[in-house]
Amino acid sequence: GESVGLHLPTLSVQEGDNSIINCAYSNSASDYFIWYKQESGKGPQFIIDIRSNMDKRQGQRVTVLLNKTVKHLSLQIAATQPGDSAVYFCAENLNNYGGSQGNLIFGKGTKLSVKP
Amino acid sequence: KAGVTQTPRYLIKTRGQQVTLSCSPISGHRSVSWYQQTPGQGLQFLFEYFSETQRNKGNFPGRFSGRQFSNSRSEMNVSTLELGDSALYLCASSLPGGYGYTFGSGTRLTVV
């Protein structure tokens, strides 16, 4: 079926290390992807997005990589900090270029725990 | 710049009752989408509104409905509440094309 799944449900890293969170998607028609961070009691917070015509996009301490050949998305967080501890979701959007599909399909989430 | 505002933040209802949740999008965002988040099912799309019209709908029963007003504010309604409707209901607004997709803090609904 059409779904987004995460490879690792939990990830524990040491403060200062780099973190990599992975995501698999199954719909080749998806053309827009977003990573969200969700802290306890809050709504998902936008981290970074990428369109399907790109392979890589960088933000502040974060990088998203898109491999369309194997339908894989990853989020890299450099120099992970305790404040990065949260659940991270990837989401895909279908036919975004076609004009406004409003629904995102979310993965189940990965819990990132940063040890001081 | 104000974010997406959802009210109320918490709600407790009894089975069989109905509930209305409210969402005010970011100024200039005309698309509003609703999601249900539960530990078991994760984030699931309910419906999307654009210019007062429902443009997209997820796989939820007819007890779940929504509407959008001319100022882009949106409400969702759940009738005949069931215990399984207990969840965090999230609203998101975006620019045309889905860009800038921003979530509110959600309404935590508990059905007893």
- Could you tell me the number of beta strands of chain A? 11
Helix fraction of chain B by DSSP (H/I, runs of at least 4): under 10%
Relative helix content of chain A: under 10%
Low-confidence stretches of chain B: none
Cα end-to-end separation of chain A: 40 Å
SSE-based structural type of chain B? mainly beta
Largest interface, by Cβ-Cβ below 8 angstroms: which chains and how many residues each? Answer: A-B, 26 and 28 residues
Contiguous low-pLDDT stretches of chain A (5 residues minimum) are none
Average residue pLDDT of chain A: 86
* Rg of chain B, Å, rounded: 13 Å
Report the biggest beta sheet of chain A as strand number plus sense, adding barrel if it closes: 6 strands, mixed
Q: How many β strands of chain B by DSSP? A: 11
Let me know the largest β-sheet of chain B.
7 strands, mixed
Q: Helix-strand pattern of chain B, N to C?
A: EEEEEEEEEEE
Q: Give the amount of beta strand of chain A, in percent.
A: over 45%
Tertiary shape of chain A: globular
Give the helices and strands of chain A as they follow along the chain: EEEEEEEEEEE
The shape of chain B, in one word, is globular
Alpha-beta classification of chain A: mainly beta
Write the layout of secondary structure elements.
The complex is a heterodimer of chains A (116) and B (112).
Chain A: E1 4-6, E2 10-14, E3 19-25, E4 30-38, E5 45-51, E6 56-58, E7 62-67, E8 72-77, E9 86-94, E10 104-106, E11 110-115
Parallel strand pairs in A: 2-11
Antiparallel strand pairs in A: 1-3, 3-8, 4-5, 4-9, 6-7, 7-8, 9-10, 9-11
Chain B: E1 5-7, E2 10-13, E3 19-24, E4 31-38, E5 42-50, E6 53-57, E7 64-68, E8 74-78, E9 87-94, E10 102-103, E11 107-111
Parallel strand pairs in B: 2-11
Antiparallel strand pairs in B: 1-3, 3-8, 4-5, 4-9, 5-6, 7-8, 9-10, 9-11
Can you describe this structure?
The complex is a heterodimer of chains A (116) and B (112). Chain A has 116 residues and is mainly beta. Chain A has strands at 4-6, 10-14, 19-25, 30-38, 45-51, 56-58, 62-67, 72-77, 86-94, 104-106, 110-115. With 112 residues, chain B is an all-beta fold. Chain B has strands at 5-7, 10-13, 19-24, 31-38, 42-50, 53-57, 64-68, 74-78, 87-94, 102-103, 107-111. In chain B, the strands form two sheets. In chain B, strands 2, 4, 5, 6, 9, 10 and 11 form a seven-stranded mixed β-sheet that branches. In chain B, β9 (87-94) and β10 (102-103) form a beta hairpin. The N and C termini of chain B lie far apart (37 Å). The mean pLDDT of chain B is 93. The interface between A and B is medium-sized, with 26 and 28 residues.
